[in-house]
Amino acid sequence: MQRIINDPSMVVEDMLKGFAKVHKDIVHVHPDNPRVIISNTAKEKKKVGIVTGGGSGHKPAFIGYAGKNMVDAVAVGEIFSSPTAKSFYDAIVAADQGMGVACLYGNYAGDNMNVKMASMMAEDDDIMVKTVVANDDVASAKKTDSEKRRGVAGEILMWKVGGAKAAQGATLDEVIAASQKAIDHTRSVGVGLGPCTIPANAKPNFKIEEGTMEFGIGHHGEPGIRVEKLASAKEIAKEMHDLIIEDLPFEKGDEVVVLVSGLGATPVMEQYIFFDEIEQLLQADGIVIYKSYVGNYFTSLEMNGITLTMMKVDEELKECIDMEVETMGLTQIGE
């Protein structure tokens, strides 16, 4: 694997330096912890703080969603590894303004443990922390074991809703309730066509044989539901659509937000081909697309593949989705 890096063991540190310089109009680095990125608007007005965090390698997630009306502070982990409890704690302190902090993150063992430790540290400082754990990946566990499901690209919609709710002046409980509703109404699934390689490793994390695809693959290469012969965009879209539709379930007359994300090596051109197939399927279902996003929103280094995320929306969620936002990963001006 050929890369444009210096020291493979310093990829995250080197990346963060460049990120902060390029996006200095949106974010800055914590003065005492280079693994915490803070929105420049975090304390523009008094509100509930929004914190997230996760492993690196998923750009623009997670740091790319720090900014106006979205995430206030982000804890940054090593490639595909949880941030430390100290980094989560520093992010929580940086985001707190006395109204409490909503920590919105994905369901991974390391993140669960470190957020819990950070929350206990924050409580010692009289900072109220409440959490919502994203578990939108339908392929990662049965619906009856939904608490075991991973959080994937649906986290972006959770951050969008939580950030908007906080910006509206909601209380901590109201922000948590809206964020929980957002992820409860969201389902995602991924398909992998090619593997990725952690920079410090000499070989790919996993294999996907030429001419095949792994349906339901995780963002770190976690095994999917099945390995299949590579299919057309129409066939892939139908299979992903069917799994998501049945799981919530989404029904005729529903309004949905659709988010299609490449996993790092999938051309945006192919993502639009895929979206067109999804739009036709939803139209046939009688499901209305309220808003759609297509692009590299939540990647996995250079993995080839795609994720499909759908969120069923009501008036409250639509109002939050429509709020303007300015981050590196998502900029939206009004409705």
TrEMBL record:
| Keyword terms | Kinase, Transferase
The terms describing its cellular component in GO are:
cytosol
What Pfam families does the database record attribute to this sequence?
Dak1 (PF02733)
Any one Gene Ontology molecular-function term assigned to this protein's record: glycerone kinase activity
Domain DhaK positions: 7-330
Q: One biological-process term from Gene Ontology? A: glycerol catabolic process
Highest taxon listed in the record's lineage: Bacteria
Q: Which InterPro entries match?
A: DhaK_dom, Dihydroxyacetone_Kinase
Q: What is this protein called?
A: Dihydroxyacetone kinase subunit DhaK
Which species is this record about?
A: Irregularibacter muris
